[in-house]
Design a protein that fits this description.
Pfam families: RmlD_sub_bind (PF04321). By secondary structure, the protein is of the alpha/beta class. The protein has a domain at about 1-140 and about 175-205 and about 250-265: NAD(P)-binding Rossmann-like Domain (Rossmann fold, 3-Layer(aba) Sandwich). About 40% of the residues lie in helices and about 15% in strands. The protein contains nine helices and 13 strands. It has helices spanning about 10-20, 40-45, 60-80, 115-130, 150-160, 175-190, 210-230, 255-260, 270-290; strands spanning about 1-5, 25-30, 50, 85-90, 135-140, 140, 165, 170, 175, 200-205, 210, 240, 250. Helix 1 packs across helix 6 and helix 5 packs across helix 7. It starts with a strand and ends in a 9-residue tail after the last helix.
Length: about 300
Amino acid sequence: MKLLILDAGHCLSLALAREANRRRDVELVIEPGLDLSVERLDEVRPDALVIPPLSRPLSADPAAVTAHAEAVEACMAACRERDVPMAWCVSDQLYEDGFESPIDEHVIPAPRDEGLRRLVATGDRIRGELPRHLIVRLGPLFALEGSHAWLGELLDTLVSGGDLRAEADVIFCPTSADSVAMALIGILQQQGCGAGAWGSYHLAGTEPVSAYTFVSMVRTQLATRLEGRGEEIELGGVKALSHHHDQPLRRVLNCRRVLDVFGVHQKPWRLEVGRMLDIWCLARDDDARPVEETRET
């Protein structure tokens, strides 16, 4: 299976590359940006196109949100012309006001924010004009590297002694970019084998948690690992924010359909954070190891 991936520096694109590198049944072609022409589709001839999400669109510059929506629609038009399936990943923030119960796939977001409404309009166009599509709604992505790599940003701030602020009254399901990459490839392989289960799916980590609790847990696990390594670093602190005084805003995605249709189980975010912190510590060991001098013979 050959996949065309856009936005090479995105944390999800990097995760897809890592997943493809450990397999022999997937070939990736990764483009630097979101621009895609029919001619490029003819050149690559992919089995599917994958577009990573615009992370945190609620706080993104409105011009960036509009540019992303327009680029996705241009990609959709090219895919429609060449009958290439497209998978577009979107942020759970499209459900701006959340829901008291887990949000099912058939619930179309109806945000008040103008930028989010622009993204919803793009989703409507995809549903109406491209039969072979996947709209994959994700919880907040976290990874160690790449753009929008939330966990990497948290670690850099903590280690440098900077304080973090996070909402104590916004509940969501943090989602590992690596687990999304594994799931996407598995889903697209099943689609390529004739599953024909196109449409919208939710893909997020298990165990809803507040942003503040998630960030605090990352700090605690980081402190434990650094102490175990004998490193004395004064980490930055974590401060709670409160914006929803009446009741917490719950933005929890119900991911039952992706399990029922494709057999995809969600990975616990705590295990994924722990695994990534172990990788981060190993990278520190590599950075600290002196470079051996080479001798000419």
